[in-house]
């Protein structure tokens, strides 16, 4: 062995000195904290931690009060021009989280065990013995934290953290009202025998003659009521702004013409044949994928398959819109169509099932 004081030759000339090994510094003597040796200070620290958790709970309650009492449109403002509602909600929710964080830090610094430990590195997968030691160390840590013998801290922490779930619950209210049965109906059902709902081209709003479509043609469509509400005795304000976007999102339609002999008519919700739902090989389906609601229009002409670009769900438009590939769990809803006295394509009725993504209350029947 080479002595640590030996020297080695430098390839470029001269000598290189070998450094002295670093001595093991060891661990310094443990310094006891005032709360470790003085029961009175320990008790005071415990009350301080509980008080911080209590302040967090108070801040959460203040958040809830501000949410229900301050309107977004309040005319009075606070510093910086921020609205009272926005400032109050942000302030109290921030304080609720801050007090919990400060309380946990204070608990760790003043009351939890602070002995330094040294452990050797080990492979990524621990042995069974090491796992047992780790579980024991975890149990020891729980015991040393004092959570079992400090009910004041434990209960105040549980109360503060538990109350923090309430802001998340009340904020769900801002997502808007529950849809109820709105997903089961679209504006396609607003047509009448005297004015059946015409199918028009999306964007240009022109009606479609069945005779104008050739085999292989695919057309993106919307109901005529979105452009001519008076024709169907619909209040124009019902198809403006947000309402217009809602109607379009539910009523978006795809027309495809194929050889009539390729169509396999399925059954509707009542078990009746869909043979009269098409016009000379023209079929109509919802444009909204039944997986997560992406708009679809990628047509494979030779197979009559419609592909969703989001997750590759594939539907067979010649066979009642059934899923032939991908994560979608339900066929595309089909719209029954016919022609009016002028030869324009119209809807016979609304969809007989909800459009859009699947949801747990949605009924499904084999077709």
UniProtKB/TrEMBL annotation:
Compartment list: Cell membrane
Spans through the membrane: 49-70, 82-105, 152-172
Keyword Magnesium: no
Record domain Rieske: where: 250-346
Gene3D superfamilies: Rieske [2Fe-2S] iron-sulphur domain
Membrane topology term: Multi-pass membrane protein
Residue ranges, annotated region (Disordered): 1-38
Listed Basic and acidic residues bias regions: 1-13
UniProt cross-references to Pfam families, sorted A to Z: QcrA_N (PF19297), Rieske (PF00355)
Keyword 4Fe-4S: no
Keyword set, alphabetical order: 2Fe-2S, Cell membrane, Disulfide bond, Electron transport, Iron, Iron-sulfur, Membrane, Metal-binding, Oxidoreductase, Respiratory chain, Transmembrane, Transmembrane helix, Transport
Known cofactor(s): [2Fe-2S] cluster
InterPro entries assigned to the protein according to its UniProt record, in alphabetical order: QcrA_N, Rieske_2Fe-2S, Rieske_2Fe-2S_sf, Rieske_Fe-S_prot, Rieske_Fe-S_prot_C
PROSITE patterns, alphabetized: RIESKE
Stored CDD domains: Rieske
Function, in words: Iron-sulfur subunit of the cytochrome bc1 complex, an essential component of the respiratory electron transport chain required for ATP synthesis. The bc1 complex catalyzes the oxidation of menaquinol and the reduction of cytochrome c in the respiratory chain. The bc1 complex operates through a Q-cycle mechanism that couples electron transfer to generation of the proton gradient that drives ATP synthesis.
Protein family membership: Belongs to the Rieske iron-sulfur protein family.
Name of the protein: Cytochrome bc1 complex Rieske iron-sulfur subunit
Species of provenance: Nocardioides humi
């Amino acid at each position: 062995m080479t002595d640590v004081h030996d020297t080695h030759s430098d390839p470029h000339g001269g000598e290189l000195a070998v450094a002295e090994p670093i001595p093991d510094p060891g661990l310094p003597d443990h310094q006891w904290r005032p709360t470790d040796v003085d029961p009175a200070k320990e008790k005071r620290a415990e009350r301080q931690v509980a008080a911080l958790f209590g302040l967090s709970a108070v801040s959460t309650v203040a958040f809830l009060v501000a949410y229900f009492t301050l309107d977004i449109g309040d005319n009075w403002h606070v510093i910086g021009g921020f609205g009272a509602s926005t400032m109050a909600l942000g302030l109290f929710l921030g304080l609720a989280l801050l007090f919990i964080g400060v309380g946990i830090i204070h608990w760790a610094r003043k009351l939890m065990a602070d002995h330094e430990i040294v452990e050797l590195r080990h492979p990524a997968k621990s042995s069974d013995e090491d796992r047992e030691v780790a579980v024991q160390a975890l149990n020891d840590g729980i015991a040393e934290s004092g959570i079992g013998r400090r009910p004041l801290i434990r209960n105040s922490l549980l109360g503060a953290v538990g109350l923090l779930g309430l802001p998340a619950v009340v904020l769900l209210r801002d997502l808007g009202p529950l849809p109820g049965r709105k997903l089961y109906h679209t504006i396609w059902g607003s047509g009448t025998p005297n004015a059946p709902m015409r199918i028009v081209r999306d964007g240009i709003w022109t009606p479609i003659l069945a005779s104008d479509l050739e085999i292989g043609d695919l057309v993106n469509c919307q109901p005529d009521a979105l452009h001519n509400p008076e024709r169907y005795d619909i209040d124009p304000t019902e198809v403006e702004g947000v309402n217009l976007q809602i109607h379009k999102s539910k009523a978006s339609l795809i027309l495809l013409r194929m050889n009539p002999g390729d169509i396999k008519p399925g059954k509707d919700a009542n078990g009746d044949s869909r043979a009269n739902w098409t016009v000379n090989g023209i079929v109509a389906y919802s444009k909204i994928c039944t997986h997560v609601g992406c708009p679809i229009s990628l047509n494979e002409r030779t197979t009559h398959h419609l592909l969703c670009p989001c997750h590759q769900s594939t539907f067979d438009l010649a066979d009642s819109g059934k899923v032939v590939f991908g994560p979608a769990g339900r066929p595309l809803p089909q719209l029954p169509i016919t022609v009016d006295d002028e030869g324009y394509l119209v809807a016979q009725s609304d969809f007989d099932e909800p459009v859009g993504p699947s949801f747990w209350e949605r009924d499904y029947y084999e077709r």
